[in-house]
Design a protein that fits this description.
121 residues; Butyryl-Coa Dehydrogenase, subunit A, domain 1; 5 helices; 69% helix; 0% strand
Length: 121
């Protein structure tokens, strides 16, 4: 578990990223009803896609409080981008928990790095 000051530093880092990389595109994302590509690029900078997943598969082992802080700070500037990250986490969760080693290797690792959002079948 992180210390209070670690959570505060994490919040500042995510807020800074959200305000500089996500917020400038938020209105356009909503107006055009498009996927927030800029947010996905921003998530890669702080490895936010990897946040809730175990370090053994390339994640950051971020606890629920860190995940809530992350989503809250992104939602402050763009609800669509926050929801996008949450959906990515929700989709990858079962694979991380119950997927075969091959599936984890082929899907989780590229997804955690932000290289794929949805695997092609």
């Amino acid at each position: 578990m992180l210390e209070r000051q670690d959570y505060e530093e994490f919040r500042k880092a995510v807020r800074r990223l959200a305000e500089t990389k996500i917020q400038p595109h938020a209105a356009d994302v909503d107006e055009k009803k498009r996927f927030p590509e800029e947010a996905l690029d921003a998530f890669k900078e702080l490895q936010l896609i990897a946040l809730p997943f175990d370090e053994s598969i390339g994640g950051q082992s971020g606890d629920v409080l860190a995940q809530c802080i992350c989503l809250e700070e992104i939602a402050r500037v763009c609800a669509t981008s926050s929801l996008t990250l949450m959906v990515i986490w929700a989709g990858l969760g079962p694979i991380a928990s119950f997927g075969s080693p091959q599936l984890v290797e082929e899907v989780m690792k590229p997804a955690i790095n932000g290289n794929i959002v949805a695997p092609s079948v």
